[in-house]
Amino acid sequence: MKTPLLSLCYLLLVAANACAFVTHVKQVGREGSRSAQEEFGFGYRHKVCISAVKKETKKTTTPPETFKKADFVAVMAERTGVTKKEAEASLQAVVDIIQEQVGQGKKISFPGFGSFTLKDRAERKGRNPQTGEDLVIPASKKPTFTASKTWKDAINGK
Predict the structure, then answer these.
(1) CB 130 within 8 A of CB 115
(2) Which of 152, 47, 43, 145 is nearest to 98 (CA)?
(3) Interacting residues of 147 by C-beta distance below 8 A, sequence separation 6+
(4) CB 89 within 8 A of CB 97
(5) In 3-state terms, what secondary structure has residue 140?
(6) 60-88 pLDDT per residue, tens
(7) pLDDT attached to residue 135
(8) Distance from the Cα of residue 33 to its chain's centroid
(9) Dist. CA 143–CA 95, nearest whole Å
(10) Which of 152, 153, 148 is nearest to 113 (CA)?
(11) What's phi and psi for 108, nearest 5 deg?
């Protein structure tokens, strides 16, 4: 009768110690996990548990708020003193010009903002994920935007 009771007490003690350890690692973070291992008596064989706790404490980033075309048009109209309809027509004209000129292979550069270019993508091998069949992805052209150094520095506070 003593053995099952002692085993149960031992399991309860280990569970309480593990809960205290998990709470400690969550509060202290990765840097304090080594001292926590020593403090709570966890050795090398408990690394799997420790790494699971570390994964749980990783910070997640939230996606940025979307600034939609309608929002852009509203701000543009306010700053330039024109109606929203005129601002939208102006914006559409700018987008159309960029698409046409870059599509013809020209580089469009706005100093302090960035440049739009057209890049060639080489033919490459691929695989159909549903069938596993090998296939050849044909060469194509890809429009790209590169932010200027001035703008990058302004964003990064330099």
Answers:
(1) no
(2) 145
(3) 113, 114
(4) no
(5) strand
(6) 788 889 999 999 999 999 999 999 999 99
(7) 94
(8) 26
(9) 13
(10) 148
(11) -110, 125
Distances in Å between the Cα of 5 and the Cα atoms of 16, 17, 18, 23, 34 are 17, 18, 20, 27, 32
Classified as helix, coil or strand, 94 is helix
The pLDDT of 40-69, averaged and rounded, is 63
Q: Cα(72)–Cα(87) distance, rounded to whole angstroms?
A: 9
How many residues belong to the chain? 158
Alpha carbon separation from 9 to 4, 22, 46, 83, 146 (Å, rounded): 9, 20, 20, 76, 64
Q: Residues with Cβ < 8 Å from 143, sequence gap 6 or more?
A: 99, 102, 103, 116, 117, 118, 119
Token digits for 132?
């596993």
Contacts of 30 (CB under 8 A, 6+ apart): 54, 57
Amino acid at 108: I
The pTM assigned to this predicted structure is 0.56
Residue 122, classified by CB atoms within 10 Å of its CB into exposed (0-12), middle (13-18) or buried (19+), is exposed
CA–CA separation, 126 and 138 (whole Å): 10
Residue 46 DSSP label: G
DSSP-assigned letter for residue 112? T
Closest CA to 115 of 103, 106, 126: 106
